[in-house]
Amino acid sequence: MPMRCLALFSAKGGVGKTALAVNLAHAAATLSGRRTLLIDLDPQGAATWLLQIEPRGGAKARKRLGGGGLDDLIQPTAYDNLDVLPADRSLRRLEADLAGQDSEKWLRKALKPLEDRYDRIILDCPPGLTELADQMFRAADLIMVPVIPTPLSTRAFAQLQEHLAAEMKAPPPLLPVYSLADRRKTLHKTAMAAQPDWPVIPYASAIEAMAASRRPLLAGPSTPAARAIAALWADVERQLTR
Fold first, then answer.
1. 35 touches 81 (CB < 8 A)
2. What is the reported pLDDT for 93?
3. For residue 31, what are the domain limits?
4. Alpha-carbon distance 77 to 228, whole Å?
5. Which of 91, 120, 171, 210 is most buried, by the most CB atoms less than 10 A from its CB?
6. What is the CATH number of the domain that holds 118?
7. Phi/psi class of residue 27: alpha, beta or left (left: φ > 0; alpha: ψ in -120 to 50)?
8. How far is it, in rounded angstroms, from Cα 143 to Cα 223?
9. CA-to-CA distance for 235 and 225, rounded, in angstroms?
10. How many domains in the chain?
11. Cα 114 from Cα 101, distance rounded (Å)
12. Helix 186-194 / helix 151-167 crossing angle, nearest 10 deg
């Protein structure tokens, strides 16, 4: 089966994107038994930290993504089938590098040597419609977009759709997901009622607690949020294997 790439993207921060990236990468590795690589492209390195990984001393993912191979930067996690390409400080300058790139598929080409090693690649990108985001869109087979159930977040998703239609002839499919959804809030309930087919990840203390436990939800006790993650991954897997 060919390698497939899932990209996690949001136009703004604070929508639960990194927690989704970590949990879905863990689900891919454990529920589906896929050889999975989580690539942390955010200089803050939250996904790297949540999986209790530290970048190796002197690591410069920015240069390796530009050529030279990624193998010796990739690290195993505590979970079978799940590896991480950690974020490091060099990624802060990645956008400046991309400004001088001629190829629109630079990131896709950088990932190609990994296709015999991994079944699934999960990209956790920094927020914002930047050149890096455009590179990610061209590398992905599916783009997941966490959306808080509010008008501003829904508007940001519509803007992303417009951007992709303008910039790409055949953009990958989008999978919007309601994130941090609180059914006690009228605004959230109204937004979710308008898009009843979108998957929902509830606002949950278990997700917040990941910052303390530093482990994915499915590595702990069963909770509504963990079951929602498992159902979401099953949907993603179906789309990636079509």
1. yes
2. 63
3. 4-240
4. 23
5. 120
6. 3.40.50.300
7. alpha
8. 26
9. 15
10. 1
11. 21
12. 30
